[in-house]
Input
Amino acid sequence: DAKTTQPTSMDCAEGRAANLPCNHSTISGNEYVYWYRQIHSQGPQYIIHGLKNNETNEMASLIITEDRKSSTLILPHATLRDTAVYYCIVRVAGQAGTALIFGKGTTLSVSS
Amino acid sequence: EAEVAQSPRYKITEKSQAVAFWCDPISGHATLYWYRQILGQGPELLVQFQDESVVDDSQLPKDRFSAERLKGVDSTLKIQPAELGDSAMYLCASSSQAGTGELFFGEGSRLTVL
Output
């Protein structure tokens, strides 16, 4: 799987949008970008994934650049409960049973 | 909503003792994973099962760790003997063969070795 690069930490004010960047310059054509987050002392939780089109669900939006070498996870109105470590992972989708390879992620701190 | 169940939630043991963790995946999920997460780092894959078969255990320290999924449903991860460096969160996850194959994680078992 391609390697990803994320900032170590980010801060965000409550109610503002949190934009978490991820670089994946060696991504292959059949690899998707997945985002998971891990709230303190809990297991990781799936947020969203995409191939090349922008995606949105009830939790977040995912913006992938046209060359697919980077992406941004957007939490439109961050709350204190969004404080967590966010992991950007590149993985071939459709291959059910492919393990996720985690990096260190970005620690997002949301403050009031 | 279906969840991955893990127990115990917390375990404190002394070094050289044996310890075991249990995981019950979401019903129908054929693939089961055990991850280890040291404080401040991302989860690291230890072993992956497809039904009752091991798919990948290349990162499992086989001299002291063992994992089994005898009937292809729940799974046990054992450490014997435990060492100080084994202190970590042990996470279990499962995924189905259908759909996009996203992983669902349990709450984890936090091990402290004294």
In short: Chain A touches chain B at residues 32, 34, 36, 41-46, 49, 85, 87, 93-105 (CB under 8 Å). Chain A has no helices and nine strands. Chain A has a mean pLDDT of 92.
